Amino acid sequence: MEDKELAKKATESEAREVAEAAREKEWTRPSFLRELFMGRFDISLIHPHPEQDPEEEARAREFLDKLAEFLRARVDSEAIDREGRISEEIVEELRRMGAFGIKIPREYGGLGFSQLTYNRAMALVGSKDGSLGALLSAHQSIGVPQPLKLFGTPEQKKRYMPRLARGAISAFALTEVHAGSDPANMSTMAVPAEDGNAFILNGEKLWCTNGTRAELLVVMARTPPKVVDGKEKRQITAFIVEVGWPGVEVVRRCHFMGLKAIENGVIRFHNVRVPRENILWKEGAGLKLALITLNTGRLTLPSAATGASKTALEICRRWCNERIQWGVPIGKHEAIAEKIGRMASTIFAMESIAELSASLVDRGGYDIRLEAAMAKMFNSEAGWKIVDDTMQIRGGRGYETAASLAARGEEPIPVERMMRDFRINLIFEGSSEIMRLFLAREAVDFHLQIAGDLINPKVRGKAKLRALLKAGLFYARWYPNLWLGKGYLPSFGEFGALATHLRFVERSCRKLSRTLLYAMMRHGPRLERKQMTLFRFVDIGADLFAMSAACVRAQMLLKKGQDGSEAVRLADHFCRLARPRVKTGFHAVFHNDDDATYKIAQEVLAGKHLWMEKGVAGLHHPLHEIVPAPSESPEREPIHT
Ligand code: MYA
What we know:
Elements: H1 3-23, H2 32-37, H3 54-74, H4 77-83, H5 88-97, H6 115-128, H7 130-142, H8 145-151, H9 154-165, E1 170-173, E2 189-192, E3 198-209, E4 216-228, E5 231-242, E6 248-253, E7 264-275, E8 279-280, H10 286-297, H11 300-322, E9 324-325, E10 328-329, H12 334-363, H13 369-394, H14 396-399, H15 402-407, H16 415-422, H17 432-455, H18 461-481, H19 499-523, H20 531-560, H21 564-590, H22 594-605
Parallel strand pairs: 1-4
Antiparallel strand pairs: 2-3, 3-7, 4-5, 5-8, 6-7, 9-10
Helix pairs in contact: 3-6, 6-7, 6-11, 6-12, 7-10, 7-11, 8-10, 10-13, 11-12, 11-13, 12-13, 12-20, 12-21, 13-16, 13-17, 17-18, 17-19, 17-20, 19-20, 19-21, 20-21
This protein binds tetradecanoyl-COA.
Tetradecanoyl-COA binds next to helix 7, helix 10, helix 11 and helix 17.
């Protein structure tokens, strides 16, 4: 290459680097949740509820109606579950509908819809079939289209977007055998080729959703470390990899408890030559790219979980009216009514969280990381409880498979399958524990920045005094504000019956921040490892977020005249249920048996209570005796290299 051309390229790439490094800092509005953890209930960040562009709403309605009709008429989820595969005809029809390019800009042949429309589409799909949800979501929530849209060069977009919009299935390859929740620990390597024009990729990715059916992958791999300020800095880089390239091997398809048709597998890379121009964003930015992609990616699941929960509610409503025991429909018995009431208002809150978070992405300039993590955690856990209650309400019929119900002439209501399909939501795309950890870190981050040195035993002498002065000055101004707020006064009047709940949220968020400070003072640097305590703060924050989202959405629906008064009743009920949880959470911060629990756990792990494991058959079969069931045999799947 000519020197001049090289120089031009270097300047271009530097300019892009600067612009892109700034991308995440271009937030014009802070995160509502971040503020909440800092004791500031800034409702103006979410209220009035962001509205969708009417032109898009009309265009989206047509697409969503078509998708709903298709799901009702053409998708046989029992067959998908039984056969472990989504047929090519179904995939082809979805391609024709544009369902593989919902968010891909129209200039590249996609539908060009917003995050909100995409979420609504995923709620529809999630209400019907989890495997189909995973196929579409792994492709466009985290697969190639999303990071390409955020970080791709114009050339990369021109080359790949139209193909992706037409339905070239893609996947996100991050997880490895020893790198799950901690992806930075990956060992897949990409080293520069001798000619400098490419990287040579080697390694193996595990549980790559869509991996066994994909044409394109976004692969995160270690690249040679860089020396920064005299220290070696680990580098992870993201690449677009074509499955058809020599050396890419789909080793096997993995099978799971549910989502029987998920195309998930082990992908091996053996000396795969990846052209330099297939680097996404820039060398060394791969982990950040993956985490940023996962932030918006995580917004899909809360909608899919809401969709599945709505199906559960329909099942319960019908069954509770129809089933008579002791002379009355079971829904009249308080034991069952309690579940139905809780289910309905929780679903309203779940939908409020999912729609609010998606709308904030669309409004732009908003730091969505915390809301996405919270939405993922809250909706997957609340949805799981709903599916579990549905199983309980359907009783034996819930536990029986749909095929067995049909065989003895009953309606094949698939609660058993729903339960198998739903459980993974608390694990993939960042487990509940990782979401809590991430949120907890962000919650204490504010205090650590102000007073971190004060509680750091390594900081001594003058530096400690400086830290004391800095923290003292800050807290002298900040702390009194945590006692004063409009939550004690008549406020939020425009919310009518819901105002009382918003005042509670306002008071509680100041209390949350105060209590965080006390916990920091009590535990010092050990707080970072006190996950049981930290997670209580996150759970309080989750309920405060859900209450806020529910009230704001109910108010918006009331204003629009769309089922408004019913929405207010549901929001009010959700808040009534959440308030005691918040109070209990606060009490438990300093009144708990965490130390005893931790001690027992360590004793168990050290083998002190092995006597407890006696008297059972246990796990005594050697692994090699486990043979795959015929339906799980890898030979069944076409494996390509
Ligand atoms: S995909 C795989 C899912 N895996 C994960 O989600 C991994 C979870 N782990 C993490 O998120 C991170 O490792 C954590 C970081 C949070 C633990 N946004 O030092 P650090 C920056 C932007 O804190 P760690 C799957 O399952 C941070 O500032 N940046 O790192 C698909 C720092 O940057 P800098 C972030 O201690 C399943 C750097 O990163 C974020 O390792 C299929 C390192 O940070 C963030 N969020 O902890 C899906 N976090 O160095 C199908 C950190 O510049 C879908 N950073 O300061 C199906 C859906 C629908 C189904 C339907 C059914 C009904």
